Amino acid sequence: MGAGHTHRLYRHAHSPVHALPPHTKLAAVLAFVVVVVSTPREAMWAFGAYAVLLGLVAYAARVPAGFLLRRLLIEVPFVAFAVLMPFVAEGERIDVLGLSLSVNGLWGAWNVLAKGTLGVAASVLLAATTELRELLLGLQHLRLPPLLVQIASFMIRYGDVITDEMRRMRIARESRGFETRGVRHWGVLAKSAGALFIRSYERGERVHLAMISRGYSGSMPVIDEVTVSRAQWSYALALPSAALVVCVLGWVL
């Protein structure tokens, strides 16, 4: 985890949220999601309050609303699932605009949409303010098993390596006049996929041997030691703390 790695979800900016240590942000987002999931679905006002809290975080992080909304499109499959719930769920039914809908299905759809959207929004804000390398370091500081952190680190880096290899192979095919026009060309694509697998496997072996020759013994060295002050922890936990107050009120009121 020596070299930096910027992903597409990251938005470079100089803000108090960007400056927070990564493990404090990870802990804050995890705590926020747990609080949101624990909120009763009938407390609809509470989810509006959670959205306002996330909006304040986005404002502090200088993340534009358009950027956040575009990234929320990733939850479209879950939205489609939620839309179907009132039609297929059983139990008491009501008529809405001439459609017979299940009451339990309506509540279930609202539950999935509200909590899922808030969780995805919190994750997008985390990704927009924290680079991948910092996220991995944050997981390491939170005492996640080192082997899992290393697997995630290699997966991220090899994802880019394999994507770049696929791009070069595509350019090589096109430079020789190859165009995918039907089933009869699938054999060429299958051979390309096999060659890509072999090249990736061989490269992985070479990297492993290079790591062993440099003294790798099963754990990656921590290059950046991050010290966290109480003020930083307080700033990071302000979001889940405020959400916890809303959750308690949601159960009481």
From TrEMBL:
It is a multi-pass membrane protein. CDD domains: EcfT. It is found in: Cell membrane. Its main location: membrane. The chain crosses the membrane at residues 43-60, 72-89, 109-128, 233-252. It comes from the Bacteria. InterPro entries: ABC/ECF_trnsptr_transmembrane, ECF_CbiQ, ECF_transporter_component. It holds the Pfam family CbiQ. This is Cobalt ECF transporter T component CbiQ. It comes from Streptomyces chlorus. The gene is cbiQ.
